[in-house]
């Protein structure tokens, strides 16, 4: 055990700075015998505070050991020695809520381990000490390490704490001292005596040295006193210098204060000079000629407008001159108040002229004759207003509220013009749409009086081209009108000028020229433009909505054309600040909603199956409708940018068709079996999807094929049933008997399963009877399926395979149960194949 203890200490505990207190060998843990040697050890940490742990150690290959479990001593709740009256190797340790039963190799080893554990608990966890049950009383003189002698003067912990091994250098020095004294290590007393004598000798020499240096010490003290006196004299000189420096500092501070006041005075004089120069320059900006031009202005004359613009620029320079607010109270400035009065009068006349000019130009434009499917261009009106642009710019800086009033008057006047133009234009367009609708209904009525479906699938190609032309006409007319109006408004009212000036100012101050208050310049510009263009074209969105509704009313499928064309236009590169692009985007979103509603309605039509009387269903009308709808949409969405939206609806339409098939299969008015309705329609659906070859519907095509095959199998099972009913019942009883434990070779010896009984049953099914039954079955299949269906042969082949499987199972049972003299059916598998073939050829 000592060798094992040493090996464990070296491998596991020494690297962790721990030492083993006690160790025991375990043979069982929880009643299970250990295959490899297992040990229970208690170890203490070498550093304070001392930590005590219990380890379960398992021996591995090649004398290696591994710690399997680790417990803290404070977590031990109970230790049970099992029975103190009877010697036993078993004991129990309860760790927290877990109880472990262990078996030591010997009783003595167990008692030693438990007593050492009890002592360690009393010493290191007296408050959290576990309960010791069926354990001998603790003996105070017991030691932890049974390898130490019992008569030692101190305990194990004290010995370990006091003892400290000497180093190799200390040992070498000690041996040198012994060699100088000509002593051996056994003559320690003599060595100690020699050391004492040397110590006394050295002490005497030290005393003699101290007594001999008394004169030198006195001289040193005299020198120290002289140094202190000189240091006091130097301190007095430093105090004098410090007082002189304080006086000098005060003088310098006074000089600096006077100099700063002189600098402030010079700066104030310079600022005053500059203010006066700016003031005088501003006063001289507006001349008497400028005042006379503003007072006698004829805004209708282009030459007078140019002179007014020059006078406005001069007044703008005066108004924006760098004049401080207090200087406005000066007499020279007050005498120039006539300038402001003249400007105010000119503003009133200018606003009155603008109002009249806006009204006259709008009336002139609305009276022009144009093609009934076009909107009059506004170039003439823009050209007439353009000379006033510079005055508008001046007005924006001089009187912002009047400038905003000018914008409002323009918007109120011009939106009435556009409202009349849009009303006339869209009325003509909608008349064309209605004319196409009447023509389409007449053509449809001539082709088929019984057809009332107005889906896009029945729209003629010529009508589609006409609708596309109308949509292109509307977009082609509206786009230039809105874009030209926006450019004119931005240029005429100088919407971008102030933004660029503000942005330039902010960029000089912060270094960021791309944003204003957290918003980009483009975004702020777009908001201002929309603030003007929105009220100006408030009638555009309702008219576009009315046009789209008329298109959809003429033919519900036209919503697909609208969606394709508008999506193509919306995704085309355009100016993000364009108001028409924003309006067009809103229109596209509205059409997308109508597109979704139309597809949802189409899906509902495919789902609804109405059967008013008992009939044999066959192929549902929803399948041809689905096929035609897919073909038409594929033509329209060929190369379209928003094809993804259509493909999402394809899956929804497929599910709607499947729901319609399911509803029709369980309809009480259907004469056809449920499985027949399903596999016939799923077969038709599979053929449609195979013909269309749409990649996004490949999964649905495979699902339709699977549904068809599963329903064919279900129909075959239900229709075929068990043609050899009595034979089936006989062998079913045989299988049940074998399942209850009857041996296969004993089946023929049972009275109810004898060969005689089997032959009686077989004799009831001759080949003629079987063929007759199969003929009736074929007629039944033909009756259930639609006339001329290609699936008849498919179903008949499946029935053939199912019937042959039944016969083969009967033959296999006869072979295994009747080995000596196996009865045979009155027909063979080859006969059955011939029956099926003949019946198929006859029909």
Major sheet summary line: 8 strands, mixed
> Widest sheet: strand order?
4-3-2-1-7-6-5-8
Radius of gyration: 57 Å
Are there runs of 5+ residues with pLDDT below 50, and where? 141-163, 444-460, 499-521
Query: What is the β-strand count?
Result: 10
Query: Given the C-alpha coordinates, what overall shape results?
Result: flat
Helix content: 55-70%
Count of helical segments? 28
Give the helix/strand class. alpha+beta
Average residue pLDDT: 78
Report the span from N to C terminus. Answer: 98 Å
Strand fraction equals: 5-15%
Topology overview:
Layout: H1 2-13, E1 18-29, E2 32-45, E3 52-60, E4 64-72, E5 76-80, E6 90-95, E7 98-104, H2 107-124, E8 131-133, H3 156-162, H4 168-180, H5 188-212, H6 214-283, H7 288-295, H8 302-319, H9 331-334, H10 337-366, H11 379-385, H12 389-398, H13 400-447, H14 461-492, H15 495-510, E9 515-516, E10 519-520, H16 521-536, H17 540-554, H18 558-571, H19 579-607, H20 622-636, H21 643-665, H22 674-692, H23 698-720, H24 725-739, H25 755-763, H26 767-784, H27 791-817, H28 829-842
What does this structure look like?
- The chain has 28 helices and ten strands.
- It is α+β, with helices and mostly antiparallel strands.
- It has an eight-stranded mixed sheet.
- It starts with a helix and ends with a helix.
- Mean pLDDT is 78; it is low at 141-163, 444-460 and 499-521.
What attributes does this structure have?
843 residues, alpha+beta, eight-stranded mixed sheet, two-stranded antiparallel ribbon, 10 strands, coiled coil, transport
């Amino acid at each position: 055990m000592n060798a094992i203890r040493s090996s464990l200490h070296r491998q596991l505990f020494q690297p962790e700075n721990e030492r083993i207190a006690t160790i025991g060998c375990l043979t069982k843990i929880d009643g299970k015998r250990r295959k490899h040697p297992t040990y229970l050890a208690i170890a203490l940490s070498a550093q304070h505070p001392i930590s005590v742990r219990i380890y379960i150690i398992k021996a591995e290959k090649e004398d290696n050991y591994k710690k399997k479990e680790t417990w803290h001593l404070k977590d031990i709740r109970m230790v049970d020695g099992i029975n103190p009256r009877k010697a036993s190797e078993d004991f129990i340790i309860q760790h927290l809520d877990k109880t472990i039963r262990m078996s030591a190799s010997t009783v003595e080893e167990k008692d030693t381990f438990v007593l050492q554990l009890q002592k360690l608990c009393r010493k290191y966890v007296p408050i959290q000490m576990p309960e010791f049950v069926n354990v001998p009383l603790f003996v105070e003189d017991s030691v932890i390490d049974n390898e130490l002698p019992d008569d030692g003067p101190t305990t194990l912990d004290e010995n370990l704490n006091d003892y400290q091994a000497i180093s190799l250098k200390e040992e070498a020095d000690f041996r040198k001292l012994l060699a100088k004294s000509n002593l051996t290590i056994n003559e320690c007393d003599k060595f100690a005596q020699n050391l004492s004598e040397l110590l006394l000798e050295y002490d005497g020499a030290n005393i003699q040295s101290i007594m001999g240096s008394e004169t030198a010490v006195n001289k040193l003290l005299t020198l120290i006193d002289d140094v202190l006196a000189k240091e006091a004299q130097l301190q007095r000189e430093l105090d004098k210098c410090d007082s002189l420096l304080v006086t000098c500092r005060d003088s310098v501070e006074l000089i600096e204060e006077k100099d700063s006041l002189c600098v402030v005075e010079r700066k104030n004089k310079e600022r005053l000079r500059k203010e006066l120069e700016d003031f005088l320059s501003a006063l001289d900006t507006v001349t008497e000629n400028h005042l006379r031009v503003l007072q006698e202005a004829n805004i209708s004359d282009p030459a007078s407008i140019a002179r007014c613009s020059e006078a406005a620029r001069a007044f703008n320079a005066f108004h924006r001159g760098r004049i401080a607010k207090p200087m406005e109270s000066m007499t020279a400035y007050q005498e120039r108040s006539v300038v402001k009065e003249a400007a105010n009068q000119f503003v009133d006349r200018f606003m009155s002229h603008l109002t009249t000019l806006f009204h006259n130009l709008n009336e002139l434009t609305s009276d022009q004759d144009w093609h009934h499917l076009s909107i009059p261009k506004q170039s003439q009106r823009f050209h007439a207003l353009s000379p006033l642009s510079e005055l508008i710019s001046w007005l924006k800086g001089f009187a912002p509220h009047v400038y905003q009033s000018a914008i409002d008057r323009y918007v109120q006047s011009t939106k009435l013009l556009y409202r009349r133009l849009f009303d006339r234009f869209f009325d003509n367009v909608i008349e064309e749409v209605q004319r196409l609708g009447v023509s389409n209904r007449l053509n449809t009525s001539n082709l088929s009086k019984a057809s009332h479906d107005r889906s896009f699938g029945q729209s003629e190609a010529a009508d589609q081209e006409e609708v596309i032309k109308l949509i292109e006409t509307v977009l082609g007319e509206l786009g230039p009108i809105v874009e030209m109006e926006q450019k004119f408004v931005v240029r005429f009212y100088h919407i971008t000028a102030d933004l660029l000036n503000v942005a330039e100012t902010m960029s000089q101050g912060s270094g960021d020229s791309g944003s204003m208050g957290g918003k980009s310049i483009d975004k702020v510009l777009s908001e201002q433009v929309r603030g003007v263009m929105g009220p100006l074209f408030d009638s555009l969105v309702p008219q576009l909505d009315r046009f789209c509704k008329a298109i959809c009313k003429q033919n519900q499928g036209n919503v697909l054309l609208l969606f394709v064309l508008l999506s193509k236009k919306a995704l085309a590169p355009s100016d993000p600040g364009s108001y028409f692009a924003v309006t067009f985007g809103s229109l596209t979103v509205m059409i997308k909603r109508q597109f979704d509603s139309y597809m949802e309605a189409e899906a509902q039509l495919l789902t609804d199956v109405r059967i008013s009387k008992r009939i044999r269903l066959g192929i549902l009308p929803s399948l041809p409708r689905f096929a035609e709808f897919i073909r038409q949409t594929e033509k329209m969405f060929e190369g379209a940018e928003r094809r993804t939206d259509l493909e999402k609806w394809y899956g929804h339409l497929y599910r709607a068709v499947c729901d319609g098939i399911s509803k029709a299969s369980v309809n009480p008015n259907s004469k056809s079996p449920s499985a027949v309705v399903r596999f016939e329609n799923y077969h038709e659906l599979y053929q449609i999807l195979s013909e269309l070859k749409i990649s996004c519907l490949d999964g649905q095509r495979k699902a339709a094929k699977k549904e068809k095959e599963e329903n064919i199998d279900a129909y075959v099972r239900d229709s075929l049933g068990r043609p050899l009913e009595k034979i089936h019942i006989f062998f079913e009883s045989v299988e049940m008997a074998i399942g209850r434990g009857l041996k296969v070779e004993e089946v023929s010896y049972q009275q109810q399963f004898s060969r005689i009984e089997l032959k009686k049953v077989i004799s009831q099914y001759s080949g003629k009877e079987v063929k007759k039954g199969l003929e009736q079955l074929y007629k039944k299949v033909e009756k259930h399926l639609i006339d001329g269906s290609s699936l008849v042969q498919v179903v008949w082949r499946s029935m053939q395979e199912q019937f042959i499987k039944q016969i083969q199972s009967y033959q296999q049972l006869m072979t295994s149960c009747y080995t000596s003299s196996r009865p045979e059916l009155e027909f063979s598998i080859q006969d059955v194949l011939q029956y099926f073939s003949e019946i198929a050829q006859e029909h």
